[in-house]
Amino acid sequence: MTRAVVMVIALAALAAGCEREDRPLRSEAALNENREAIALASNAPGPGGPIEYKSGTRAQYEKIAFHVSQGKKLFTWYNCSGCHANGGGGSGPALMDDVWIYGSAIENIAASIREGRPNGMPTFRGKIPEDQIWQIAAYVRALGGFVASDVASSRHDQLYAHEGESRLPSPPDTAGGQPGLAQPK
User: Fold this and answer.
1) In this predicted structure, what is the pLDDT of residue 75?
2) Nearest C-alpha neighbor of 100 from the set 48, 146, 159, 148
3) CA atoms of 156 and 33, how far apart (whole Å)
């Protein structure tokens, strides 16, 4: 009897010790935007670089694998590949290189998505929720190799030469010997 009580107490303590990461189930409204002043060049007289006001959301999105993988899904859902061709460039610029006209920082990428750019990039202000803009920006940074390897998501399955190993058909069984090896006749 006491063994059962001890077991129940141990299981209750174990269950109480487990914590699940708290994630919101719905996106914020598109109206709750971060007001970041991203300057690409200073137009102020005198020495010194441009003045920037950053909200600090970089670490929240760029260093968490969940946000990068969500950005990968959203990149496909919003048809970003239609112009950027899975990051390799098409009618829109390539996202896998180190040459960025408007800056490669996540704040600059989020601003490009939110505000749009001349000659082709439409604005998504009010159309995509703010957290999804940041997730897409984090994934775009991953395409360029700017995030840690343990955070970056893998390539799309359709870009591989064959299906994943778990989806490949198993080799035929042979009578005696190892599968896949030629048997003498």
Assistant:
1) 92
2) 146
3) 30
88 domain-assigned: yes
Domain range spanning residue 100? 62-155
CB-based contacts of 21, cutoff 8 Å, min separation 6? none
CATH classification of the domain holding 149: 1.10.760.10
List the chain residues with pLDDT less than 70.
Answer: 1, 16-57, 154-166, 168, 173-185
Burial bucket for residue 87 (CB in 10 Å: 0-12, 13-18, 19+): buried
pTM: 0.62
- Partnered with residue 3 across adjacent β-strands are none
Sign of CA dihedral 40, 45, 47, 48: negative
